[in-house]
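Hi D.,

Good news: the full-assembly prediction came through. Inputs first.
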Amino acid sequence: MFIPESYRRLKRGPQVILPKDIGIIIAYTGVNRNSVCLDAGTGSGWLAVSLARICKQVTSYDLREDFLKIAERNKVIEGLDNLVLKKGDITKKISESGVDLVTLDMPDSQKAIKNAHKALKQEGYICGYLPHMEQVTKFVKELNKYKFRNIATFEVILRDMLVREEGMRPSTKGVWHTAYLVFAQK
Ligand SMILES: C[S@@+](CC[C@H](N)C(=O)[O-])C[C@H]1O[C@@H](n2cnc3c(N)ncnc32)[C@H](O)[C@@H]1O
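Then the structure:
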């Protein structure tokens, strides 16, 4: 899969969210220069950095110091002073409130929905990035418990094309499945 320079320059530790999914998250939630976002887990910080490139403020939580260090390096590479990296469990006590978007990419994301609901402003968006269908089922069940609305679930499939003298066709190689995306509004 083609990775643009704006991502190739970033460090990678744990599995990252790829530009094809990041683009959809930004487009569907409409976040912009006035938006405040809350993210977990930070991992390599690819999503957190992407949000911070365009939003007013982004706070990202991770349990692991070693991953936060990778994300910190990416923050420095991008020269971002509006990205706050916090060591902590997003399912436990958090201090953020009035946020426009909560993004969750971690095991058992559904356990963070209670805190996401508290942190979000009315009409704010939540987005779950969930590799397995079983996670989607649990996530949507919890969203319903907290009366989130406009729930939409899909995956983004990107096909690289081979363009050659003999003809053009989809490549037989590439990253097919990454994760299902679940969007909802408070
Ligand atoms: C796949 S990585 C996230 C990648 C990131 N979205 C990116 O684009 O680079 C998942 C992260 O979730 C973190 N994590 C797991 N449970 C967590 C929790 N309860 N609170 C905060 N972070 C958590 C893990 O330590 C791991 O770094």
